[in-house]
Amino acid sequence: MILSNLYNIKSSPAESLADFEPQETSQALDVKLRKALFTDSIGEQVVWLGYGAGKCVGLSRCDDLSPDEPFRELNRVEASSNPMDICRIKPNQFGVGFGDGTLRIINTDKKKIESVAKIKPLHGSCDSRVLSYHDDIITSGSSNGSIVHVDVTTQKVTTYGKFHGAVRSLVSFAGGKLLASGHGTGQIAIWDLRQPPFNSVNSVVPSKKPLDAITALSTHPAMANLVSFGTDDGAIGFCDVRGASGTLVPTSFDVATAAITQIKFDAHSGEHLLCSSEDGSIVHWDVSGIPSTEYLSVGNSRQAAWLAESLSDWVKLSSLRSKCFSAINSIDVNNTTVLATSDIGTLLCYTGLPFPKSHQHR
Asked: Which helix (H) or strand (E) holds 9?
């Protein structure tokens, strides 16, 4: 394993006025909300996780977005343990990780939540804290540092091993051959999944501050080597992991005053990115205006604009939601619509974003 402490801290991009006017619709529920996802590409239903006193998995309809009841609840299933994370397997099918370490597969295609399978605790007596899905495999990370994967079809569980510190975020890339895990110790670990034993082949500490936990990870839809990360201290960064066996030097920007909770690239163009934070903000990043001369390498091979040295000079930042007293715990994107959850139990929806439209859902 190679451990790198190199990083490249850039001046934070300046926020600009948005050249679009997103419309916000919201509705308060009677539970704290951890995460919500659209159930399919149509965007008529959302599945959400309630935690704390009202721990449950819920399903709501959102196609009308009327001011009185924009999210009409269809079904709610109480849980014995806090749901921690949810990942989309396919339209209307999801994996849900729980605080007791169990994993459930659920369906939502009949306007109600149906449990398809319950898989034993994956991490001993510890939680299934974060999930990632790729090609019929759900990967689960725990607060005890362990990482396992579950075959959705056979329900076979395979252990990767343990890493230093709690697993706070996961994302697979390179066609599922590699996995990035973010940890409470401030490290990003790269795992080689091509054949057993599944070892961590590299590790990088991307923040200039010690123990700045990696709270969010995302990969570019067209460039499997580009990983974006968010930290507990509010930084967003980008890292080229093409040379996963060598030293990784990420670039990061201080953009929020609290932990980054989620990062989402636009799945259809890769020129837009959204990030949410515990400071209550949702920020839209747009690199479509960066001239190609700013990200062409010496050999004329195209690099992602997100890795350009002058990114902070050209990227356009605009707020869908400004800093507020309630944290934003998650975001999901469906075409030009953004779904978000707040810590005080509010579902929020933003429409009219400048994303290229497509009927495909990631």
From this structure: strand 8-9
pLDDT, residue 194, reads 81
Pair of tokens at residue 237: 């960064």
Q: For residue 197, what are the β-bridge partners?
A: none
Q: Contact, 129 vs 141, CB < 8 A? A: yes
Using alpha carbons, list the distances in angstroms from residue 336 to 22, 353, 355, 360: 9, 5, 5, 12
- What is the DSSP secondary-structure string of 158-180? EEEEE-SS-EEEEEEETTTTEEE
**Quick check: helix, strand or coil at residue 348?**
strand
- pTM for the predicted model, two decimal places: 0.89
Hey, what's the torsion of the CAs at 301, 304, 306, 309, to 10 degrees?
Answer: 0
Q: How far, in Å, CA of 306 to CA of 237, rounded?
A: 9
Is the pLDDT at 299 greater than 60? The verdict is no
Tokens encoding 143: 């607060």
Which fold, 2-14+23-351? Methylamine Dehydrogenase; Chain H (2.130.10)
Tokens 């968010």 belong to which residue? 230
- What pLDDT is stored for residue 295 in this prediction? 66
pLDDT digits (tens, 9 = 90+) for 217-258: 999 988 888 899 999 999 999 988 765 444 566 778 888 999
261 pLDDT exceeds 90?
yes
Distance CA 160, CA 215 (A): 20
Q: Read off the pLDDT band of 303 (50, 70, 90).
A: low
Other CB atoms within 10 Å distance of the CB of residue 120: 9
**Could you give the CA distance from residue 42 to residue 53 in angstroms, rounded to a whole number?**
32
d(CA 335, CA 163): 36
Q: Which of 43, 75, 78 is nearest to 60 (CA)?
A: 75
The upper half-sphere exposure of residue 329, i.e. CA atoms within 13 Å in the direction of its Cβ, equals 21
- pLDDT tens-digit readout, 280-291: 999 999 988 887
Compute the distance between CA of residue 161 and CA of residue 71 in angstroms, rounded to an integer: 41
CB 103 within 8 A of CB 57: no
Q: What is the pLDDT of residue 164?
A: 79
134 C-beta neighbours (distance < 10 Å), count: 18
Are residues 166 and 184 in contact, defined by beta-carbon separation less than 8 angstroms?
A: yes
Mean pLDDT calculated for residue range 261-271:
89
